[in-house]
Amino acid sequence: MLPPSIKVIVRDWLNANHVLFLGPDENVLVDAGYVTHADTTIRLLREQLGERALHRLVNTHCHSDHMGGNAAVRRAFGCPIWIPEGEAPLIEAWDTRALWIDYAGQRAERFGFDAIVRPGAVLAMGGLEWETIAAPGHDMGAVMFWHVGERILISGDALWQRGFGIVLPGPGWSDRLAAARATLEKIRALDPRIVIPGHGEPFAQVEDAIAVCESRIEAFEADEKKLARYVLKVMLSFALLDLGSLDEVSLPGYLAGVPLYGDYDRAWFHLGFDELGRMLVNELARSGAIVRSGGRIFPAAPG
Ligand SMILES: [Zn+2]
Asked: How high is the pLDDT of residue 1?
């Protein structure tokens, strides 16, 4: 279903997928994965590249699961890094709050960038020309890449087969949800034959995927606290993928050390870290997202 010049290396929820273009003139990578798994990322890329060079790394957006490994990929392959225009000020300042790094208990290695990608720009990747399309919502600076002839969309976290990247509550939340909705409308109008998402396998049932996201957005639009609770659960699940496991006894201390949990508790829940931790663990265990064993919590589907 994909042209032979496009290799999709499907990863997991801690590491974004890698889209590798092996072109006649240059080899280009979209998204670099998480910092602590950078060795795996480099090995997977070398398996595909062989002796060939990597000429460029481009990010769909600058969250840790997509750009955390940028610096390591550049060290390994010597390639320049291109990031979306809207991310440039955050990366330049290494704004660990706006980038959801320290603020959300995530990690990434600081990197510099060599060029910016503007919505509307056409990028040559894999011998094909891709239009850059703004994809605000999950990340207000995110972009997608669209090939009109092949009708292939590289969606980043704007659309997965079952869902989309979290939108934060707090000031501007309804604007962010509206932006996510508008991005889905944009995707619907493009009518892709196939979507290569930031996480999960490429898929063709695009309308079904959009419908799932729209109903979720509708539920969040009606209830900011529901959105806040969902975001906390996603952030804790993500941290568990990074850390491997957490001692339940030390969970309140962990939550106290990551600013997002205290901020959200003060704004919406008023539980304190003991009770907040219990609520999150109970709900995550009930939904099957985590497993409790021997006083520790583990991600249900590690790696
Ligand atoms: Zn992602």
From this structure: 87
Q: How far is the CA of 101 from the centre of ligand 1 (A)?
A: 13
Residue with tokens 């002839």: 149
CA of 17 to the centre of ligand 1 (A): 8
Q: How far is the CA of 219 from the centre of ligand 1 (A)?
A: 22
**pLDDT (0 to 100) of residue 9:** 98
Cα(173) to ligand 1 centroid in Å equals 19
Q: How far is the CA of 96 from the centre of ligand 1 (A)?
A: 16
Ligand 1 centroid vs 156 CA: distance in angstroms?
A: 7
Helices 224-243 and 206-221, packing angle to 10 deg: 120
Which residues lie below 8 Å from residue 183, measured CB to CB, with a gap of 6+?
134, 135, 136, 137, 158, 159
The rounded Å distance from CA 60 to ligand 1 centre is: 9
Give tens-digit pLDDT for 4-27: 999 999 999 999 999 999 999 999
Q: What are the pLDDT digits (tens) for 136-166? A: 999 999 999 999 999 999 999 999 999 999 9
Ligand 1: centre distance to CA 69 (Å): 13
Centroid of ligand 1 to alpha carbon of 65 (angstroms): 5
Q: Encode pLDDT of 192-233 as tens digits.
A: 999 999 999 999 999 999 999 999 999 999 999 999 999 999
Give me the helices (H) in 27-169, please. 38-49, 64-67, 70-77, 88-93
298 HSE (CA, 13 A, CB side): 9
pLDDT value at residue 115 = 98
| pLDDT the model gives residue 255 | 98
Q: Give 236 Cα–ligand 1 centroid separation in angstroms.
A: 15
Closest C-alpha to 242, from 299, 289, 282: 299
Distance 202 CA to ligand 1 centre (A): 14
74-109 residues labelled b (16+ CB within 10 A) or e (exposed) = bebbebebbbbbbbbebbeeeebebbbbebbbbebb
